[in-house]
Structure formats: C-alpha cells, structure tokens
Design a protein that fits this description.
With 746 residues, the chain is α+β, with helices and mostly antiparallel strands. The protein is built from 27 helices and 32 strands.
Length: 746
C-alpha cells in the first residue's frame, strides 16, 4: 500500500509546471483530467496551505487512491469544487483555453450545483462559459460589469457592499470571502484567477441557434420570452402585448443598468389588463440601478427607488424586501398621490415568482401582480391573499371567529370615510399565546374589532397629528381607542400603534385599497405579553421615564411578577415640560447622583398591590355625593377627574355668567385627568395592560421644584435626609420677618 502525506504531495505539485503524471496523482487526474488538476486544484491546494499550519496536514492522508479526513475536515474545503471541475473537464472550449489564456473563473461549490439542479436548473456548456471571463480579475479589480465568454458576451453584474469589502455579489451569487483571489500563471506566464461562489450563475440563453437572440436586453426578452427557457411555468405575453399596444416597448430597451419588473399572465386573471396604462408600465422600471434580490439586502431597510414614472404629480417609489422565508422577496410600489380614480394613492405589494434574470441592460424580475394598480376593496385585498401571504392568517381569523355583522362591516363599510385595518403578521397570529384563545369566539371577535377603524387613517395622518398631541382614533371595539406615535430612526419615520395596552410597530403602512387602507403590524393588539418593566423599556413615548428610573436600578422592581402595579407614567413630553419650566431641577434629575429624588417622584405616580383601570380609579375617586375620595399612592394622595365631572362643576357653579356653557371636547380632549395637590395631568393613553399591571400615560409630571434638593448627600442605601430649604423660600421668610419686626402697630 502506497502512502503519501500531503506535505510530500504539495511539494511535488509546487515543483511541477506541466501536467502531473506521477502515480500518486492518478486519483485526481482520472477524475478531473490533467489540465484542470494542474491549473485549478493546484492553485487551490497551494493557497489553502498558505493559510494553515502543518499540524492540520498530518490529519490528512491519501491511501490506495482514496482520501480520508480524520481529525480535521478543513482540508475538504479544497475539494468543494469537484463537481464544477468535472463539468469543466467536459467543456471543449475551457479545456482548450485554460492552459493557454489569461482569465477569471467563477466556480460554484458542490452544494451550489446540487441546489441549482434540485430547483430544476440546467448546467450545460453555455452555463460553464458564463462563469469564465477572458481577463484576470482579482476582487479589487472587479468593476460594475464584466463580460463573459458566452457567445454574445453577456455581462455579469457586480454589486459591492458599500460598508464591507468582503461582500461582493456576481448577479445573485456571492463570492466566498475566504476562498477568492486564487491566482497562478499558466504555461505561457499569463495570469489566471479563481473565485469560489455560492450559487450557479444562470445566463439568459435562447433555446434556438438564432444569433439575434443572444445577449438580449429587457425588450428582446419581453418580446421573445418563449424563446428563453428560463421563465419556468410562467408566461409574460399579456404584459408584452399591452406594452406594445401602448408603444412602450422601448422603455425596456434603454442602454444602461436598470431593473425591470414584469407581471406574469396569471396576474390578469384577477386584474383587468386595461388598468395597465402608460404610467403603470413606467412604474415597472427602476432606471440607473441594477437590483438583484440577495444584494438588495445590503441596502438600508426600506430603501426606496425612483421609478421611470416619477413626475411632480405622480410620484411612485419602489422597494425590494426579503420576507422571513428563505428566498422569498416582496416588491412594493408606493404611489404618493392620487391623480384620478384609476391611479389611487397607496402601497401595492407583490411577490417575485422568478427573479434574477440577467439581461444586457440590467436584470428582470417576474412578479405575481402589477405594481401601482389598486382595484380591490380592503376585504378583497385580504380575501385574495394566497396561503402564507402577509395577510393570510388574519383573514383566516376573521373567517373563523368574526361575527356576521363584523364581516358585513368589513365587506361593506358605511359612509364615504373608508376603513382602516391593522393586520398582525402571520408570525404573531401563529404564536402560542393566541392559541390559548382559540375557541373563545367572543374574546377573539373583540380582538379583531380592536384592529379596525371606520375611517381612512394613513401614515401621514399619524405623523401630522402626532406633531400636535398624542393621536388617537375610535375602533370597532366599544369605548376602545388606538393611540399612535412615531420616531425618526436613521432618517426614516417608524410608526407605532397601541391598542389594549399592546404597542406594535407598523412594519408596512398604507397598503392601498379602493375603500381604505391596510397597515401591517408586528404584534396582536390587546393581548398583553410584556410586563411593566418591558413596556417602559420599549414604548417610544416612555423612553425618558425608563431612562430616569434606571438610576439606582429603581425600575427593576417592575419586573416582579408576584406584584401588581398601577403606574401613571409621564410621557417624554411631560419631562420636556419640566425642562422648560425648571431646567436646573431637570438637570439634577438626570445627573445620576440623585436617583432617590427620581424614586420619590415616581413613587407618587404608582400604586403597588393592585392593577386599576382608569375607570376603576375614577369610580374610587368619587362617592355617591360626588365628593373627592383620595387614592393612596406610595408617596402622595391622588384623585381622578373626568370631563363630565368638570362639566357638572361648571354647570353648578353660581359664579359663571348666564349663557356660558362648558364644552369639554374643546377645553380638554382627554376623558380623564389625575390630580395631586395643585397639579393636574391629563391621561393621554389609559389602560395599557401589562402582565403584572396597568400603565396610564400622563402629560405632566406630578412634582414641584422643591422635590429636587441637593442640600444633602444621601447614600445609595436610602440614608435619612436632612431638610433643605429652597433659596427663594429662605429669602421670602427673611422679608416677612423684617416686615413684622419694623412694622408699627395701628
């Protein structure tokens, strides 16, 4: 039995510039052929060995023409290209070219080839030639486009991650950052470079031998799509005919680097083809950007691209986003203004059914319905969603648990204000927490109603109204509102909706319908799954309260699942009021050295041991005689007042002028207020349910300037305090004393 260590083998390879013929290489040459082994495997082995120590080599042996990896499997990465190299051996052109020409070879791994074949892809001589360029290019030399050796010289489109040199894509295939730039010289001294890629590059090649169909642009592909065996079971003849009828085929011929979205014929089983007009066709082209699907993930979230339809009165933007499932991508168009009844405002989302089709002037993606076209009601939009589509589980919930009157309201909303539905994600609706309610029809029906508003509420309505005050709307659930807020994160606005104590992020706003709008959210409203601590931590309106109560770890007590809390939590705007009125005191609260002041102030806002709704607190605050009944907080006495209480007081006050009347909807838009001493704070978001309590968000902090004193230094273990008198109080006392001393008796 002949045995050779890798070190001995590598030494012989390194010393050999011609095809290897020694017996110990028979295993490789029988399988690969001499040329491929010499030019490619040799480069791979040598480059790999330069990055590994000799201890790894000792674990690899070749015995009787077979190889075994015992302790270390790292060396097997060298042989991850055996399937591709076996295919290269069968290519007459590459066999003739590799020994004598410079070039760059992009080699897909064994796994990439297996996956490609599993998905029905073919690998023939055309495919192999599309992996070879006739100029040697290291990754640092790669530009935006690279011609290949396939007849017609169709290009490979190159995308780089602007934030990382390690992310480089060729069409939709990624170069392996650990196995790239393998460079050698052939027998003529010409450079050759090999890069390992994780997917097969699939060229757009005609089935016929017609040279006019080689290297097609998007127009030629659209017109002669049946000649390219690349669309699978999908046809695109309807869209092609419509574009030809409207004289818009040249839109797909433009020289440059563009992205084209083409609806498949199945889309027009539900949508009338005449809804596709010139503006709609223009909206299916993104000029000056080549967007392959996986490289699109390198862009910032919610990256929007201008379409060819962009005009002052018809702005349309498009985004590409990956869904949770592997290799599922959604394309959305966002029409920012309605120009007529045929071009409505809103978002249309469609799924890529066949993507990454390279063409001479960019890339083509086939989609399952046209962009921009809005011709379905809210109910139809939900009902037409296919299984596993974004709104599928919510419509299923309505079908199974929604009452008949609820279904009628959704199908035929009254009036002309429209309807808005907040649709939780499929993942949220499939969570075990909701499963506990399955079978409880009334509870689920109430939850569904909380997600429905009989009015059209768009994202800009939310942001504009939230600038002035917390924005809220009534829902189909009796006496329950939704509250809205937004934050600007990395230059984009993120919207939030809160209902029944649950705060959800609006992940996709403004999905358009003919009679309203749909917003996708990431959680189910009304079903509490956060404790008080988590709610303070995650709610954008409570960031300042969470930050201040983090001093001395005060807010950790809200993690206690054995206790119940009622918390009047000041909003961010409430703390801003303190900053404007008493900036010095506010600064002290933020310093971190006086956390005991924050603790005392917040304890005035909390009740420990019970979780009260605002209605229960109001009932406790008022007895049968309408007299104030105090509520004991940890530090302080609170009282809850409603708008009706104020109206009654006004009506019964003998001092108000005849003819005056009180209009609570103007004087105070909020139903309830909390009172402490002379301070009054409006409850802007009541009844936020948590797993261990209830939060009521208020717009004014219940405190006075002398709550913050620095005349003593208390330890972090709550040392007893020494009284400190506010300077103004001392001065006023001295003035009063001197006045008494020098005043003359009458």
């Amino acid at each position: 039995m002949v045995e050779h260590t890798p070190i001995h083998l590598v030494q012989e390879i390194a010393e050999t510039e011609s095809p290897l013929r020694t017996p110990q290489h028979e295993f490789f040459t029988d399988f690969l052929g001499e040329n491929e082994f010499t030019i490619v495997i040799k480069a791979l082995v040598l480059v790999w060995l330069t990055t590994h120590d000799t201890a790894d080599m000792a674990n690899f042996k070749i015995q009787s023409g077979k190889f075994y990896a015992w302790k270390d499997a790292k060396l097997m990465t060298v042989f991850c290209l055996l399937q591709f190299l076996s295919l290269v051996r069968g290519s007459p052109f590459l066999n003739a070219s590799l020994p004598w020409r410079q070039g760059t070879l992009f080699a897909p791994t064994n796994d990439a080839i297996r996956k490609h074949r599993h998905l029905g892809g073919r690998i023939d001589n055309h495919t192999l030639l599309y992996h070879f360029a006739n100029v040697a290019k290291r990754t640092s030399d790669l530009e935006d486009i690279l011609s290949t050796e396939l007849p017609g010289n169709p290009p490979i489109w190159i995308t780089r991650n602007p934030r990382s040199d390690s992310d480089i894509y060729l069409n939709d295939a990624q170069i392996d950052s650990r196995r790239r730039n393998f460079q050698i010289k052939n027998a003529l001294g010409m450079d050759q470079v090999l890069h390992v890629i994780d997917r097969v590059l699939d060229p757009t090649v005609p089935d016929s031998s017609d040279n006019n169909l080689l290297n097609p642009d998007a127009r030629k592909f659209l017109e002669y799509s049946s000649s390219y065996n690349i669309t699978g079971n999908h046809r695109i003849t309807e869209f092609a005919r419509r574009a030809a009828m409207l004289h818009k085929l040249d839109m797909f011929k433009g020289i440059g680097r563009h992205t084209f979205f083409i609806p498949v014929d199945e889309a027009f089983n539900r949508i009338q083809i005449n809804t596709v007009d010139i503006k709609v066709i223009d909206s299916h082209v993104i000029p000056n950007h080549v967007i392959f699907l996986r490289p699109s993930e390198l862009q910032p979230p919610k990256r929007l691209y201008d379409t060819a339809a962009m005009a002052p009165f018809f702005p349309v933007l498009v985004e590409v986003e990956k869904e949770d499932q592997e290799d599922k991508y959604i394309v959305r168009s966002d029409t920012r203004s309605a120009t007529d009844q045929f071009h409505l405002r809103g978002v249309v989302q469609t799924e890529v059914v066949k993507g990454n089709i390279p063409v001479k002037n960019g890339v083509v993606h086939l989609i399952n319905k046209p962009l921009v076209v809005i011709d379905s009601t809210v109910y139809q939009t939900l009902a037409n969603e296919k299984e596993n589509g974004p709104t599928y589980e919510f419509f299923k919930l309505i079908s199974e648990y929604g009452s008949e009157d609820l279904k009628n309201i959704i199908q035929r909303p009254q009036g002309n204000k429209g309807i808005t539905i907040f649709v939780p994600s499929n993942a949220a609706l499939l969570s075990p927490t909701l499963g506990e309610l399955k079978g409880k029809v009334k509870e689920l029906n109430d939850i569904i109603r909380l997600h429905i508003v009989l009015n059209t509420v768009r994202s800009d309505n939310i942001t504009e109204a939230s600038e002035r005050a917390p924005f809220q709307v009534e829902t189909l659930s009796p006496q329950k509102q939704l509250f809205f807020n937004y934050q600007t994160i990395d230059g984009r606005r993120v919207l939030y909706v809160e209902g029944g104590g649950v705060n959800a992020t609006i992940t996709q706003p403004d999905i358009g319908a003919t009679n309203g709008v749909i917003h996708m959210i990431d959680r189910i409203l009304s079903y509490a799954d956060q404790n008080v601590y988590s709610k303070l931590q995650t709610d954008p309106m409570l960031q300042k309260t969470f930050e201040l109560t983090s001093q001395d770890y005060f807010n950790r007590r809200f993690n206690d699942s054995k206790l119940k809390f009622t918390l009047f939590a000041p909003s961010n705007l409430a703390w801003e009021k303190i900053y404007r009125i008493a900036p010095s005191e506010y600064k002290k609260l933020q310093m971190g050295e006086f956390g005991y002041h924050v603790a005392k102030i917040i304890e005035r806002h909390m009740i420990v041991g019970r979780a009260f709704t605002i209605e229960q607190l109001h009932e406790l605050s008022t007895n049968a005689s309408d007299q104030a009944f105090p509520i004991q907080a940890v530090h302080g006495i609170l009282r809850i007042e409603s708008k009706d209480d104020v109206a009654r007081k006004f009506a019964n006050d003998p001092n108000h002028r005849r003819g005056d009347y009180y209009r609570p909807e103007i004087s105070n838009p909020y139903p309830y207020s909390v009172l402490w001493m002379n301070e009054k704070s409006n409850v802007v978001r009541p009844n936020i349910n948590c797993t261990n309590g209830i939060i009521h968000i208020i717009d004014t902090v219940l405190m006075q300037p002398d709550d913050v004193t620095v005349g003593y230094i208390a330890s972090r273990s709550d040392a007893p305090s020494i009284p400190f008198y506010h300077p103004l109080l001392i001065i006023s006392s001295i003035i009063v004393m001197f006045s008494l001393m020098f005043s003359r008796p009458l």
